[in-house]
What does this fold into?
Amino acid sequence: MREIAIDGDMIRLGQLLKLSDMADSGGEARELLREGVVTVNGEPEMRRGRQLHRGDVVALGDQAAKVV
It folds into this structure.
């Protein structure tokens, strides 16, 4: 699992997908979310603007990233 450090209190899901290299662009992130293949803390998530906080885990297939 990859750890993604954030400076502020939160990061948006679309930003994290790009930062963690799970998506190459915002358009790709939007498509992945629309397809329902991204989970946050084990639950499917389709909102690109979902706020993530330290401790949240985002997964796509065999890739996972934890916000730290």
User: Anything to note?
Assistant: The chain is about 25% helix and 30% strand. The helical segments are 13-19, 26-35. The longest strand covers residues 63-67. The domain at 2-67 is CATH 3.10.290.10 (Structural Genomics Hypothetical 15.5 Kd Protein In mrcA-pckA Intergenic Region; Chain A).
